[in-house]
Design a protein that fits this description.
CATH topology of the largest domain: Butyryl-CoA Dehydrogenase, subunit A, domain 3
Order of helices and strands: HHHHHHEEEEEEEHHEEHHHH
Bound molecules: flavin-adenine dinucleotide
Number of strands: 9
Distance between the termini: 41 Å
Shape: globular
Radius of gyration: 22 Å
Structural class: alpha+beta
Strand order of the largest sheet: 2-3-7-6
Number of helices: 12
Strand content: 5-15%
Number of domains: 3
Oligomer: single chain
Length: 404
């Protein structure tokens, strides 16, 4: 057992620098342009694929790190560059997390690389849970998967809402109800492979922030997938459903298993935006003069920066701890995964707003990136579980009371 240490190891420091350089040299220079265009930044994804960053190999290396810190470190650095572009690069990872948390090792090896493709032929993945009438309340999913025994196929029907890479992805991972009476315990995850008829893109949303990341509806209309696309396999699903019907506890819900694993990395993304805004406004406060002195010489400004920095550092500690716990199979007894995402997400919104305030009029105009960072930060109190839902998870965990 090594002594306790808060220092990153050589591999982690190298990855951190690699990602930072990519963000600084490739992502930041084009961030404003892709935000304005509101389109998937294909050239940047291709560049990331060329250097091996956008690849299953990189994600597998990150998942394999026994400390669990590689993914949050990478996420923070990439979002320090730009969160919209980062989500275009990381979006496929959510689909892979969906496959990893519900599929067999063979299914992971078959489908996960297809979510990235190759540098010459880049592909995307999407993870489809939310629906127009079911976001936080995952038990209300209406998308239905029905088994056609004669053909050994699943027939999926429904509409998914707000899906990152939705409809433009090559591989969609879809959570659907196989037994609506059982609510979230009657759900399963399916891979819808590239070229499957019956899956299409609905409306593409125009958004407040993370505009370089594509978000759209996904429509499934008698979409048929082979039996082998059921993640985890039919035998396991039947056994799980039988247990639930007998009133016994069963291990996990399809969507929740994925979100628990990804929340610290999502918190780390928020952290990257917050750090970017903090650094930018700190530099500005040292340069900008008012009343004959740099504005940072006023406690009113300097204390803001002190609070911003403190909250960012606290967020990182929560994120790293949760990532380490998740990777090492520790039970989240106080909702530590949710806590990390809640705190980092709200910190990002708060810090970016303070950064605008410190920069005054310059903070509010598009000549500087802080207004974009503020717009980008807001999604972190909404997706992958709203702040209220994270508080619900934490409150239930610490109290043992089924708080509504
Ligand atoms: C840009 C973007 C990308 C997204 N990407 C994906 C994706 O790739 N895949 C995917 O599946 N989904 C994705 N989502 C969907 C996202 O996860 C949902 O929007 C989110 O879970 C909230 O669901 P909702 O919008 O239906 O809000 P609702 O669930 O309707 O919530 C509305 C409000 O009520 C509050 N609320 C609800 N229930 C409670 C409660 N019990 N107690 C207290 N407050 C409550 C919420 O906190 C919120 O403030 C994305 C969304 C966006 C905007």
């Amino acid at each position: 057992m090594p002594d306790f240490s808060m220092e990153l190891n050589e591999d982690q420091l190298q990855i951190q620098k690699w990602l930072h350089d990519f963000s600084e040299n490739v992502v930041r220079p084009v961030a404003a342009e892709w935000d304005e265009r509101e389109e998937t930044p294909w050239p940047v994804i291709q560049e990331a694929a060329k250097i091996g960053l956008y690849s299953f190999d990189f994600i597998a290396t990150a998942f394999a790190d026994p400390t669990g810190l590689t993914l949050p470190i990478a996420s923070e650095e990439l979002c320090w560059g730009d969160a919209g572009i980062a989500l275009s690069i990381m979006g496929s990872t959510l689909a892979v997390a969906g496959i990893a948390s519900n599929g067999t090792p063979e299914q992971l090896m078959e489908w996960a690389p297809q979510c990235y493709g190759t540098p010459e032929d880049v592909k995307l993945g999407a993870f489809c849970v939310s629906e127009p009438d079911a976001g936080s309340d995952v038990s209300g999913l209406r998308t239905r998967a029905v088994y056609d025994e004669a053909k050994d196929e699943w027939v999926i029907n429904g509409t998914k809402a707000w899906i990152t890479n939705g409809g433009i992805a090559n591989t969609h991972v879809v959570v659907a109800s196989v037994d609506p009476e059982l609510g979230s315990r009657g759900q399963a995850s399916f891979v819808v492979p590239e070229g499957t008829p019956g899956i299409s893109m609905g409306q593409k949303y125009k958004k407040m922030g993370i505009r370089a990341s594509h978000t759209a509806e996904v429509v499934l209309d008698d979409c048929r997938v082979p039996g082998s696309c059921l993640l985890g396999g039919k035998e396991k699903l039947d056994a799980r459903l039988a247990k639930v019907r007998e009133g016994k506890k069963s291990a996990g819900q399809a969507a929740m298993a994925t979100f628990e694993a990804t929340r610290p990395a999502v918190g780390a993304q928020a952290l990257g935006i917050a750090r970017a805004a903090f650094e930018y406004s700190l530099d500005y406060a040292k340069e900008r003069k008012a009343f004959g002195r740099a504005i940072i010489e006023n406690q009113g400004v300097a204390f803001k920066l002190a609070d911003m920095c403190s909250r960012i550092e606290a967020s990182r500690l929560l994120v790293w701890r949760a990532a380490w716990m998740g990777r090492n199979g520790k039970t989240f007894e106080k909702g530590e995964g949710s806590m990390s995402k809640l705190y980092a997400g709200e910190t990002a919104v708060w810090v970016t707003e303070q950064a605008i305030q410190i920069m005054g009029g310059y903070g509010y105009i598009r000549e500087h990136p802080v207004e974009r960072w503020h717009r980008d930060s807001k999604i972190y109190t909404i997706f992958e579980g709203t702040s209220e839902i994270q508080r619900l998870v934490i409150a239930r965990a610490i109290s043992g009371v089924h708080i509504k």
